[in-house]
Each structure stands twice: as C-alpha cells, then as structure tokens.
Design brief:
Length: 219
C-alpha cells in the first residue's frame, strides 16, 4: 500500500516536472535545483552568485523553506527577483509547487533560475522539479560522514559544492576523503571546494554556470 502511494505521488510529480522542463527549455531558461542540509550556505552562495553574475545574466530565484520570507528577502536585497515558497512542514519542494510560482515570472526575461530547495539531505533529491541540473552543497562543519550516510543525495547530483573551506584549518574535514567517497558513490559527479565567505574557489562555480547556460541555449 505504501509503495503504491509513493508511486502515485511520484507519477504526479513527474508529470508536473515534464511541464516545467518543457517551459524552461522553450524559454531557454537555465534552471538549477540547489540542495543541502540546513545552513550549508545555499542562500549565501546565491547572494554571491547574484552579485557576480547579474551584470551578465538576468537572474531569478525560487526559495523553499518551511516558514518565513527570510531567504527571498536576502536575494531581493541583492537586486534579483525572488519568490518564496513556504511548505508549512513539508521537507522538500515538488514540481507542482514550482509550477505554481512560475506565473510570477516572465521566463522569457530570465536567463538563470535558481531553486533553493528546503534544507534537508534526504527528501529533496527524490523529486524532479524539471530542472536542468541538480547541485548539492556540502559544508566543512557537517563532517566527512555525510556523503556515505546520505548516498541518495550525492548519487542524484552531478555537482557538489564543498562550501566553507575557510573553516578547514579549524576542523578535521578532509577534502581528499570527500572526493574519494563521492567518486565511489557517483563517479560522474564533480566537486568544487569553495568559500562563499572569502570567495576562494568561487570562480569554478561561476564558470560551470556559464558553461551550463551555453549548453542550455544551444539545445
Ligand atoms: N565561515 C563560513 N560561513 C559561511 C559560508 N557560507 C555561508 N556561511 C554562513 O553559514 C550560515 C548559513 O548560511 P545560509 O546561506 O543561510 O545557509 P542555507 O543553506 O541557505 O540555510 P537554510 O536555507 O536554512 O537551509 C550563515 O551564518 C552564513 O553566513 C562560508 O563559506 N564560510
Ligand atoms: Mg537558505
């Protein structure tokens, strides 16, 4: 019974995801679904991304949280349009929630749409939102065990942003071990080490976005 219900939920989600995907492709809007534990630094990374890339691209953000407009307000303060979804207890965004916010945007006028998922390493990765890319953020204070302990998240993402590397001197996190664990779980995935606080390594993330955008518009 439980399995049937989950299948139905996912089937409905996948239909909405296909609707979103077609819209994103028709309007040549690159869409990135950003996922992580609470506090890994998703909003900070997006603030810095808006700061760096808004001269070149038209950027918008969908923010997912259980409650408050705080993250959307942070993005608006950087000058980008942001729409907040409150899940009121739900642990992830689904494709229908995203579809419902799309009336708030003119996608023809947006080059990059970031979706910041609810902070959680478990549920968000199981839901296709119709995005082009799923990106996971992992942060140094979370410790080395997160990749092996939450494998579904890292199996389903093609890029991992290891954030807060400015804290490496104070904690026992091993970047080498993280790379090794990631390769075992998902040999295709790549990892960029960076700090949204000090900007170290951020250029790799910005170049990756530029490459992904080119690919999106050429399709
Ligand atoms: N030292 C350090 N702190 C960081 C860095 N990036 C983010 N932070 C801090 O980490 C805390 C959480 O950052 P957020 O960007 O709000 O994290 P989030 O992933 O959006 O959190 P949720 O939306 O609640 O899931 C804030 O106090 C940030 O200032 C970093 O690179 N280095
Ligand atoms: Mg956030």
């Amino acid at each position: 019974m439980k399995i049937t219900l989950r299948t139905d939920v996912l089937t409905n989600n996948n239909k909405a995801a296909e609707f979103n995907r077609e819209l994103f492709q028709n309007t040549k809007t690159l869409v990135i679904n950003l996922m992580s534990s609470p506090g890994a630094g998703k909003t900070t990374l997006l603030e810095e991304t808006v700061r760096e890339l808004s001269g070149k691209y038209r950027i918008a953000v969908i923010e997912g949280d259980l409650a408050t407009e705080r993250d959307a307000d942070r993005i608006r303060a950087m000058g980008a349009k942001a729409v907040q979804i409150n899940t009121h207890g739900g642990c992830h965004l689904d494709a229908r929630m995203v579809a419902a916010t799309l009336t708030e945007f003119d996608l023809d006028e947006i080059d990059l749409l970031f979706i910041e998922n609810v902070g959680n390493l478990v549920c968000p990765s199981g839901y296709d939102l119709g995005q082009h890319h799923k990106v996971a953020v992992l942060s140094v204070p979370e410790g080395n065990d997160k990749i092996p302990k939450y494998p579904q998240m890292f199996m389903r993402t093609e890029l991992v942003l290891l954030n807060k590397i400015d804290l490496l001197p104070y904690l026992d996190f091993s970047v080498e071990e993280a790379r090794k664990d990631l390769t075992e779980i998902n040999p295709e995935s790549i990892l960029f080490s960076l700090s949204a606080r000090t900007q170290e390594g951020m250029h790799e993330w910005f170049s990756w976005i530029e490459g992904a955008y080119l690919q999106c518009v050429q399709q």
